[in-house]
Structures are given as structure tokens and as C-alpha cells.
Hints:
Elements: H1 2-20, E1 24-25, E2 54-58, E3 61-65, E4 71-75, E5 82-85, E6 103-107, E7 110-114, E8 124-127, E9 136-139, E10 150-153, E11 159-163, E12 171-176, E13 183-191, E14 217-224, E15 227-234, E16 243-249, E17 257-258, E18 273-282, E19 288-295, E20 304-313, E21 319-321, E22 330-331, E23 348-349, E24 356-358, E25 379-380, E26 389-407, E27 426-432, E28 439-444, E29 453-473, E30 480-489, E31 502-505, E32 513-516, E33 525-531, E34 539-544, E35 548-551, E36 560-568, E37 571-572, E38 579-581
Antiparallel strand pairs: 1-22, 2-3, 3-4, 4-5, 6-7, 7-8, 8-9, 10-11, 11-12, 12-13, 14-15, 15-16, 16-17, 18-19, 19-20, 20-21, 23-30, 24-26, 25-30, 26-29, 26-30, 27-28, 27-29, 31-32, 32-35, 33-34, 33-36, 36-37, 36-38
Amino acid sequence: MKKFFFSFICCILWANWSLAQSKTYCNPINLDYGFTPIPNFSEAGRHRATADPLIVNFKGKYFLFSTNQWGYWWSDDLSKWNFVSRKFLLPHNKVYDELCAPAAWVMSDTLYVIGSTHTKEFAIWKSTNPTVDDWKIAVPAFEGAAWDPAFFYDDDKRLYLYYGSSNTYPLYGWEINPKTLQPIGERKELVRLHDDQHGWERFGDYNDNIFLKPFIEGAWVDKHNGKYYFQYGAPGTEFNGYADGVYVSDKPLGPFTYQKHNPFCYKPGGFIRGAGHGGSFKDNFENWWHITTGVVTVKNNFERRLVLFPTGFDKEGIMYSNTTFGDYPHTLPNGKVDHLKSRFTGWMLLNYNKPVQVSSSLSGFAANYAVDEDIKTYWSASTANKGEWIQSDLGAISTVNAIQINYADQDVDSMYLGKFTNIYHQYRLWHSLDGEKWQILVDKSQNRTDVPHDYVELPKPVETRFIKLENIHMATGKFAISGLRVFGKGKGNVPKSVKGFIVLRQEDDKRNAWLKWYPESGAQGYNIHFGIAPDKLYSSIMVYGKNEYYLKAMDKSTTYYFSIEPFNENGVGQRTEVMKVE
């Protein structure tokens, strides 16, 4: 009896310990993204695309809506996502965009949804049971026609609409009757871009503003400690510097004041770049997050993915998102945490620009594109056949914790317009110490789900040198990989602190600066940290394979502080002392 009791207690302790272990995730989020439904957007090739996301925490579950997915996702834990097929447009809504840049909000025990429209013909839908396709029309025709809408239900039970998407017009606010769900009075102009002052708001991949006026879009409002945080995206969804800024007010319709730390969510470097037009939310532990848009923009300017970042407010009420190592594995919390402290696991990228072997290559899609840390480039095999493979040499025996497989869309059949729920990927991952004797690492040869950005955390770390990905079945197109990314720790030395770091700010245009440093031997890349105070270096830029960076994202009248750190497969080097730049 004592032995049984001891075993029983051990089982309980083990179960509790297992439940207490935090899960990890890696951007871009692994969702079964639909294909663009718009034919003239896919003339360069059929491809997956979505953007403009929001997550609503409803009854302890997370509901994720984004552009043109013919449905939505829900999750219990921000890790495993379940797709619900659903079309919200009615037969008389003659548009390709099925819930383009949707809005969703909660009032009482009901979740509401509507998409973008310039007409007054879209219905608002409601559900009390959205984990399944169980929706009713709340309003058959919403008279406050709005593109990029966002609704905010205040704690005084008043409802507001925020919207706009233009490089000419501002973003607007409008009070909505929560009973009739129709506008009250007149809309109010709230926020415009001021790219003559704010460098990051300038159009272009490098904020050079020589082509078009910048776009403002993606309004979103959150309330924290009595303040209203009006968030917006700029300067254009095609660009690495696509980001989200924020204004603050004591009132839901302003006036709003530009936050000194801006953009608050910014990721111009790394594997997937861009962090614009998103929405913030609180998880079940009261931690803040920001779900937003990362850019691919190879086959079309609107080829995009979704990314998730820890977010919060510091003790002075400054809103921030933590994007450092933002596309490396991060830990999901299982309780209340401080997002000023990194959620990064410390698992480094082990195979950046390391030797690659492949079964075959399609002309123009070289093998090393799969390990160059750029989602815009990819290797493609010459077929989609079972048995095509790619092999990555880590260079030395290393500890492997996780692997992310990012598929690319190459020669996808012309039928793929919109959402398909019957497609799937199957593969095997092998590992070897010497490149000759192989052992199975992950077997998904029986998988029946669509996993275009599959992320696998190993049950326990593995000591190995070679990783091989073997194709069993492709969801669509040829066997093509934009990133076979192996994470863990190498056995070598962490790079030393950077020397010679300087920031040369342009005298006649303080929006611009040239950053330069001595290359550090053994460094894969560098994180540039900068911000509005020595203890508020909330922005970061990841730079691979270079020892300079042109930064054109600063505000003219702001004093900045800078530091830089090197990293490689073995870890992260020490940051330099913080430098003040007037």
C-alpha cells in the first residue's frame, strides 16, 4: 500500500511539473494560412497571404482574425491554433476580400465581427460560441462604413469605432451606440502622419520618402491605467520598416499626444521583418501581447505573415514591444511575468550560412537560400516528390533544442485561390553525428495538417551535427524551403564585446544616422539597441553579416541612446556601454 501511495504521489507531482513547464513558440506563427483569393494579386505565382491581425481574449480563449482567411482561429494557449471555416460576407457583398482587415470586439458575453468596407452593406455578426461556426447577424447593414475598422468597448459601456487607411486622409474616431450598433453624431479626425518629424513614418524600405506619401492605417485602441493608447501602422505594408506607433490620451476620442518612444513595435531586421498593423491584447495571466504583420512581399506586395511579440507598459506608462531575437524561440508564460525581461529562450541559430547539401535544385533557387536568414529567398527542389531532401551541417557537434521549417510557395497550382482545408505537409527530420549514420529525430510522415511554418520543440535536447529534412508530401507546389532553422547551443566561444561602435547623426536632418563598428571575429550578427533613455532601449535591430547600418527611423527632436551586442551560435556577447546621441 505504501509503495502504491508513493507511486501515486509521484505521478501527481510529475503531472503538475509537466503542466508547469512553459511552451515555446517561434515567429512567424505556424498557421494554415490561406492563399490570396485575388487573381491579379497572384500573377507572379499562387501564394499564401494574410495580414492585419487581431486577437481577442473571449471567455479565456484566444480568437485570431486576419485578412482573407475564409474563417478564423482559436487557441487555449497561444500555441496550438484551431481553424474554424466561415464566410461572413453575404451574397450581395460583391468583393474578393472576405473579411479584409477585420474588426472583432467583446461586449458582455458576446463576440462581434465585421470586415473592412467602403459601403454601408456589411453585416455585423455576433456569437456566444465562436469555437464553432455558430454566428448570427447582429446588424444587417452597418452604416459606419469603415476600412481597417477597430472597435473599443470602454469600461463605462460606451463603444467607439476607429478606422482609416490612406496616404492622404487621417485616422478617425466615432462613437457607436452599443444597442443599435450604429454611429452617433459625427466622426472625429484623430491622428495623421508627420513624416517630416518622424523618420520611421517615411515611405520606402529605407524611409527615403522618394516615391509616394506614406500610408497610415490599422487603428487600434487599448486602455491602461486610465490612459487610451491609440495604435497605428505606417509607412507601408511592403517594407522592412513597417511598424506600429502609438499616441496617448486621457479620453477615448482624444486629443492624442505622440508617445516619445515610437514606433513602439519595430522589427526591421532578422529572418522575417516588419511589425505593422496589429492589435494588442491581454492573456489569461494579465500579460500584454501584440499580434502584428511581418512581410514577405516576393510574389506580391501583400504577401505577408503574422508575428507575435511580448508587449507592455513601463512604470512611466510608456508602451513597448520586445522584438529582440523576435524570430527566435520564445517562452510562453504560465503566469504573470515582466515583459521588459526577455522571453527569449537563449537557443541560438546553429546553421546560419553553414554548408548545405540537397537532393536537387530548381534553377535560380540555390541551396544556401534555405539558411541565409531571409524569408524572401528560398531553395526549391526540382520536384515535389517523396524523397527530396535538404541537409544542413551545423559545423560541429551542438545541442539542438528546436527546429523551424519554413516552406515557400513555388509552382503552386493555379487552382489555389483562397482557403483550402484539405492540404497537408508530411516530412521526416533525421540527425547524425558524422553525416553517415542517421537517426530519426522527428517523424511527421503521418501528419494530416497544413504546417507552412512548422516549429518543433524537441522533447529533450539532442547532441548532433547534421540535420536532414526529408520530404514525404507537399501541401502544394514543389518542395521549397525559405528557412530550415536549427536552434540550440554550440560548444564554442561567445563573441567578445563590440569595439569601435559609433553613431553619426546627420546634422541637417536628425531623422538619419550612420552606425558603424569594428567587425567582431566569430560573430554571426549584431543586435543594435536604442531608445529614449539609458534604461529604455526598447527598440532593436538585428543585423547579419555587416558592420554598419543606416538608421532613418528617428524622430527629429528626440535624444537617443544606443548600445550594441554581438551574437553567434554559442550565445550573446556583452553589450557595449550606452552611448548618448543628441
